[in-house]
Amino acid sequence: MFSKRKISTFNKVALALVLMLPICASAQDSNFGNWLIYFGNKKINAKWNLHHEVQYRNYNAIGDLEQLLLRTGLGYNLTENANILMGYGYILSENYIGNTDEKFDVNEHRIYQQLITKQTYKGLSVQHRYRFEQRFVEDDFRLRFRYFLGINVPLANKESNRWYLSAYNELFVNTETSIFDRNRLYGGLGYKINDAVRVEIGYMNQFFETSSRDQLNVITFFNF
Question: In the chain, how long is the greatest CA-to-CA distance?
């Protein structure tokens, strides 16, 4: 369905797009929050997999809900290193009203399609993810494209090593104005508990056109 040459070209174009992004955005406001994240992947057989995730996002350390995200999807392996997936997500956002302590709820239902490609070189793992979203936000319908570039680097070449460094950048682009939606830049430390489970803790900066937010991310990955 996708040749290696086509996937490689797509990777280069998307990477160039991210590198051209003005990372030094003019942020007017910044505050610190916490995201607790679970990513699960169930291997059905050699070709099919079931993805599921839960993200509990807080405005502060914990207890002040910003957003609850539930997402699932059914994936298919095109090759050993390329997977396509279609899925659904539900997102509950609790937004503050101006500078008050009052909130209002925003419900979003989301359908998405994605392609993930992976490369490994001398222990270095690189992942590209291209995701297209159809978003039903209350009575509004929106479209959005996302490109994710992630890298995992082992801290030692020994087989017994379980520690690694993780970094990623993800660009969000709308199909209507404003085109730039947001950008997420992350760096963290990971530990592989066993072949099925690994955990990460890291810092993420998320910036918009006129503001930015900082998050402490605690992430669990479970493959079974």
Answer: 54
Beta strands in 44-196 (DSSP E): 48-58, 65-79, 82-96, 103-121, 124-137, 140-154, 163-174, 180-192
Which helix or strand (DSSP H or E) is residue 9 part of?
Answer: helix 4-19
Cβ pair 14, 6 in contact under 8 A: no
Q: What is the mean pLDDT of the chain?
A: 89
- What are the tens digits of pLDDT across the range 6-62? 555 555 545 555 554 444 333 344 579 999 999 999 999 999 999 999 999 999 988
- The rounded distance, in Å, linking the Cα atoms of 165 and 151 is 8
Domain ranges of the chain: 4-21+31-223
- Alpha-carbon span 202 to 214, nearest angstrom: 11
pLDDT at residue 15 in the model: 55
Judge whether 203 and 210 are in contact, CB under 8 Å: no
Q: Which residues of the chain have pLDDT under 70?
A: 1-30
Beta strands 32-43 and 212-223, pairing class: parallel
Contact indicator for 103, 96 with CB cutoff of 8 Å: yes
DSSP letter string, 10-27:
HHHHHHHHHHTS-SS---
Q: Are strands 140-154 and 180-192 parallel, antiparallel or unpaired?
A: unpaired
Superfamily covering domain 4-21+31-223: monomeric porin ompg (2.40.160.40)
Length of the chain: 224
